[in-house]
Design a protein that fits this description.
The protein is built from four helices and 13 strands. It is of the alpha/beta class.
Amino acid sequence: MLDKAGIAKRIAQELQDGWYVNLGIGIPTLIANYVPEDLNVVFQSENGILGMGPFPIEGEEDADLINAGKQTITAMPGAAIFDSAMSFAMIRGQHIQLTVLGAMEVSDSGDIANWKIPGKMVKGMGGAMDLVASSDNIIVAMMHTSRSGKSKLLRQCSLPLTGVKCVKKVVTNLAVMDVTPDGFLLLERAPGVTVDEIRAATDARLIVNGDVPEMKV
């Protein structure tokens, strides 16, 4: 199975030249480290930067340059920094071609829960609600199961929803899946992982059509 970096590498293969891409907190932030050299992709962070680069080399961090998850980042040549009002105008105005989010749960109809666990303190819902309401192309980057081994891919989410029927694709440490009206369509499996192992780790409807190739990461 993949680690978090492997998930990010696989999602980087979904990028297209000229796209503006919003990277959410968690695994998605790693994608900036793995952009193919022949692509011109501009990363946006909801706290107010367009032109976000990969993570800085240790010892070269700038504490004033951070992403939405409060991690230090780099800025690409020509990057722009602005307030959150401008940032959310870009998001709500649908000027972002791809949004990549982390999640705690995803349903097989494309619902996503990624902002609150009942009984636990949270700082706020953040910008995820705006992102899922405004983006037509959402990929979720997540671990397939929880630390206790419970599936995070469900027939119906148990946690408070962030968005309804908005996720288009899910990439986990086990698999790549499209969201379809009939459930998750298994497109690729992680190296060394079998279809039966993916079935066993998935509580949602899972569609398997013929041989499923391994991911190339």
